[in-house]
Each structure stands twice: as C-alpha cells, then as structure tokens.
Amino acid sequence: MKQGEKAIVLNARDNVATALADLETGSSLEMNVGNKTLRVKLTMSIPFGHKFSLLKIKTGESVVKYGEVIGTATADIYPGDYVHIHNVVSNRGTSNRGVE
Which domain holds residue 43? Predict the structure, then answer.
C-alpha cells in the first residue's frame, strides 16, 4: 500500500474496494486490480472502512473481498456504489443480516 492511497483492493478477484478514508460522492479513484487499472467514480459517499463496487454486480451475483465470497447482491450494484447491508446479504452463518 502506498502512502496517500484512498482505497485498497486486497485480491485480484475482488469486485469491491475498501475506503481508507472518508470518500466524497463524485470522487474519482484509480485502483490497481491484479494486472489492470480500474477508474471508478463514486456515486455515493463512502465512510472509512466501508466498501464500494469496482464493477457492476448484478442481483444474485457474489460480492468478493479478500478473494472470497462475502455475500450476495440483493440489488444491482454499479461501479462506485456503496456496498453495504442495503444491497448485500451475508453468506456466512445462518442469519440473513447484511454484510458490514
């Protein structure tokens, strides 16, 4: 991780990034994902430590962080969208609570 980075992607399989600072709506970020660079414009404010989408994730598709499936999209999620309990349900455990 480079000093001053605003978000991080931990695995080339990830379709979400994690904010390393509070990020404002409309911010443009350049993310290195595996051997490619993605440019994402945030559609919503993203709080520190929370996730945003790098790619379109369709309803029913997997949300991947750390190279692992952490949940399933309950609505279409577009690049730059906030990824949280309003649009993802956790695949872990037996509850239907959303992913934090």
Answer: 7-90
pTM score of the predicted model: 0.86
Examine residue 2 and state whether it is found in any structural domain, yes or no.
Answer: no
In whole angstroms, what is the distance from residue 87 CA to residue 70 CA? 13
- Here the CATH number for the domain that contains residue 29 is 2.30.130.110
Domain membership flag for residue 40: yes
Residue-wise burial string across 11-27, b where 16 or more C-beta atoms lie within 10 A, e elsewhere: eeebbbbbbeeebeeeb
Beta bridge pairs of residue 65: 68
Q: Residues of 50-75 as b/e, b for ≥16 C-beta within 10 angstroms?
A: bbbbbeebeeeeebbbeeeebbbbee
pLDDT tens-digit series, residues 26-47: 999 998 888 999 999 999 999 9
